[in-house]
Amino acid sequence: MPPIFCVVSLGRGRGKTRLIERLASELSRAGIKVATIKHSEGHVDLVDKDSHKHLEAGAIEVSIVSSSELITIRRTQASLDDAVDSLRLKADLILVEGFKGSPHPKILCAEDEREAEEALKIISNVRAIILKSPGSTEEIAGIRIMGYDEALELIKRGVVEYWVKQVPGLNCGKCRYGSCQELAEAIRRGEASIRDCVARNTFKAKITVNGEEIPLGTWPQHLLREIVKAFVLSLKLSEDTLKNARRIVIEVGLED
Fold this sequence. Notes:
The protein has nine helices and eleven strands. The chain is of the alpha/beta class. A hairpin with a 2-residue loop joins strand 10 and strand 11 (212-214). Helix 5 (148-166) packs antiparallel against helix 6. The mean pLDDT is 86.
């Protein structure tokens, strides 16, 4: 799971959308793949659109496809976790507008110090505060009041920590850094990203035990993938089913 930061406030007009736009722009230019999720209090405005007519006719899910976009609308009661699970492209970071009741780290946008103090009474896990009208105080309830640049660095550190955890520890010597430790140090210095890891870029299969990934070389990955494919085919699924699949997930419980 990539790091998730929620940008929250007590009301509208506190700069949440503008902050996410700036963060997404800067981080994307730095080579960080950003996904965003926005919470809407009401229905998404689709009235008079053909896609809305499909939904009104009874469709439970509608996809809109163009030469450069794919938009899916689903009729369901959904949570932030559901929205995260629905993401199909692998991101390094998920920025969320809203969901102030979630457990994820948050950046609080507030009008002034008084409003920030009120917000902190009901919003948990706030890592930074951004004020539209800053005063002379540097922190509130032990949480630092930041400018945009400081908030950007806070989020970058979260991405770097995530990348370092993805370094497989194989020490295959195939990247220009020679070892996984050196690659991790280069990531911390801002000189590399996880995409410099040759082993991960040739990913074929992986094993996790209690959420921790077990490092596998190229040949064990290839062998594991072929064994799983053969097992799935033995279940009398059609070859087309496997050919059109992008991923196979097997979960094994070890408790009797």
